[in-house]
Amino acid sequence: MLTNKIFLRKTKRGNILKIVREHYLRDDIYCGSEFCNDCDHESHDKVLSEQPTSKSRLYPFPHYLVLDTNAVLDHIDVFEEDVLTDIVVLYTVLDEVKHKSSSVYKKFREVIADKSRNIYIFVNEHHRDTYVARQPGESANDRNDRAIRVATKWYDNHLKETKRRVRAVLLTDDADNKRKALEEGILVCSAAEYVKSLTEHPTLQDKLSHKNYETESNKVAIYPPHLTPTQIHQGIKDGVLHQGAFAASRENYLEGSVNVEGYEKFVLVQGRDGLNRAVDGDIVAIEIFPEEKWTAPSEIILQDDNENPDDNLEEEANFLPQIKPSDSADRSPTGKIVGIIRRKWRQYCGILQPNFLQGATRHIFVPAERKIPKIRIETRQAEQLNMQRIIVAIDQWPRHSRYPKGHFVRALGPLGDKATENEVLLLEHDVPHSKFSEEVLSFLPKLPWTITDDDIACRVDLRDICICSVDPPGCTDIDDALHCRRLSNGNLEVGVHIADVSHFIRPGNALDKEAALRATTVYLVDKRIDMVPELLSSNLCSLRGNEVRFAFSCIWEVDDEANILHTKFHKSIIESKKAMTYEEAQLIIDDASQQHDIATSLRNLNKLAKILKRRRIESGALVLASPEIRFQIDNETHDPIEVEAKKMRETNSMVEEFMLLANVSVAEKIEKEFPECAMLRRHPEPPQTNFEPLVKAGRNQGRNLRCLFFLSLAIILYGGPGFEIETSTGRKLAISLDEAVKTDNPYFNTMLRILATRCMMQAVYFISGTTQRPEFFHYGLAAPIYTHFTSPIRRYADIIVHRLLAACIGADSTYPELLDKRKTSALCNNLNYRNRMAQYAGRASVALNTHLFFKGRTQEEEGYVLFVRKNALQVLIPKFGLEGTIYVSGKKGQGKKFDVKFVYNEEEHTQQCGNIVFHSFDPVTVRLSLDTSNVQHEKLVLQLVKPYIEGFSVRSITEEESNQPMDEPMPLAPKRKTRGGRDDNVKSKKKTK
């Protein structure tokens, strides 16, 4: 049977188009029940049980469940449990879920794929008896609700005609749809009513969403109301309101910021009324105050450690930020959040806050991420969940509730268990880490894999060239190799050879889609979450020593001064002669007795790399730094047994320079050939306000000289009190950082560079046709154009760039999605998000293993004051590359105040106690230990040892052991000096075992 679907569409010019599509209806779409003899089923179509067992008190007879769209969207966590079986999923519902929530749709498809659940997809939209046409004046939602009721009624009548008397029950949370279903004689109830009727499974109620529950109207509202969507839209249109993404502060739970277009600084929001129930990541509407009401960010580090679950805000009054009318340069645009445009809630990991009421079902959930507020949930299994990591989802945040309301999703495992904590880490940073599906694995090449004659015919054979790779120790995903040889004309040929991953991953298949979703390989301390299956990442694509591999080669002809004379690109076949670590390569370069081909190649590469680096720095490229450390992991327990700062060698820089050069050369090529759709990477120049902490830190270095003689000496030696950091251009900043050196503090320059790194903007992927040419610039590298080409095993952006470059040289063809700016821009958004989350996950893994390392251990180390806060000193420990906080005011322990008094100087950013003054970058000695009293947030505790302050500092362990009196000592110099920092994460592969 054939019917027509009619659509009306308005064009850009205002014309109305009438679109008529043929819609086929069939009578051979079957019900899917095992006992039905009326339908001529194939055996594989009989999914629903012959005699379904009822577990419900509401419907104690055999029945199948038919789900409404809102029931699936709101209660997917319930349906993921295997308690509910024999379910009919209508095509109407599946299609609605797909368009309303991609995350829920993915989960729902996984539920449907579980054959033990007996879930049948009924294509009601093409069944002759269940298809309904949209009526005049009927909304799409009302039409779909009617289609669901018609299909449920058909099922119920169809099944009643059999001897088994199996019924169909509709689950819906839509009150109007439920009312109409009852009027039409359909068995119907809400998802909550049905779940509560399953007496054998009371804990399933914990997973019910509270989105549609009525709020307690008798409670007093403690938050301002949110504006309606119409009011928000009109306010933004009139310029009264602005929109942006809300970012909660980790250091002060009563503070956050919103990035608003047109404002150089983030717009500050403070206090509960100002935050107004926004959760980190939400897109919000904000009203910006007049300039006279702008304030400065709070200098207080404040965390919500209150254990009172009541909605009492009195105790917070003393911590609310105060308006600072002083120096206008310190103040930021300030406003208040008046509405939520789009929630970005997800599932959160954490623990239950202990509740001392026996048998209580209402509990407070404490998220592991400090930027997320506590959440109220109901659970009947609090005793079992005690000391367990659990997952909770937010459902709503009423005005009368201090915290949002949510529901329990699932338990992860024991608190403190390393596997559990790693799972938390990955979930909290939204890292896809499930096993690759069978569909994805089906697109891998079959073993044994061999190179065919056709492969050789379409590639340049470079197997006779002395190519080698240089990587971190233990690296198995080797994606780049190098060569350098002298040509007959006296010039040098330099080649960068990159794993040809795009040969194995073809556009649009399941393997490609999974790699695009994951976007990047995530490196944790003791494991690696691959972007592509191991067969590719560690085998067929990895450029291992003495194995033939496919590569994409970028080859230059250069003179001895590293001037590029000619560049060419081609797909190639290579055989790496040796896979080396940075240390092994450095030893070969330094050993003059070694004169073989690899040694000669490495020395020439090293010589050229130094020239390239010098030239980049002269052009304004920045050499920044970040505190990075490396753990030695026990092979059996996988616990950290030693930790040290990463060592940087010349070979690190050598590889980095040629990777940078290849990325620039490829960027120029693909942008020239595809000016509208090249995938590039830019690093925006930071606004000058970002540099204020760095400039102040440099200037304040002269102010810690306590007498006129030393101040005069500083003026003679350094030209003034402190260092003037020029930030107007990248080149001036680089020169200023080079000149800021203190002979009495060898780590001072590195700390300045760490601080400079934190002033930077995030580098991002973008599509050339969506951005003006001047904005292509990469600030950190001082490169007019840049992309990522050199790591396709671990970055999906590089795969796209490989496909573009292959099309440029005729080695492969394009495809529609590759040249679609809208789709590739959306892809860039995912790549930027996943890369950011991967960085955060890596840092969190370092923090976790640092805690494991210090468990049961106390150690004294030398450090430096990195920031001086109003109530704390933030200290950097170079040996471990970590930061910690020494609180100098506020609460200590169970509300006890410090006996000593610190005075904070807001102008000079100092803390003074007696005659001891703390400035940024001052050396200190601290004692490190792990505080395990808060099981949710175990934290590394820093206690001041030197300089010694009576009543505040702790005595040195050696002094305690000898019980000798201690004079006030001079601060010690650091034991080791770390150098480094790399530009734009060019080569950041980590050791994995």
From TrEMBL:
Obligatory cofactor(s): Mg(2+)
Keyword Nucleus set for record: yes
A GO term from the CC aspect: nucleolus
Any GO molecular function: 3'-5'-RNA exonuclease activity
Residues in PIN domain copies: 63-179
Keyword rRNA processing: yes
Family, per entry: Belongs to the RNR ribonuclease family.
UniProt-listed PANTHER family: EXOSOME COMPLEX EXONUCLEASE RRP44, RIBONUCLEASE
Protein's UniProt name: Protein DIS3 homolog
Species per Swiss-Prot/TrEMBL record: Pseudolycoriella hygida
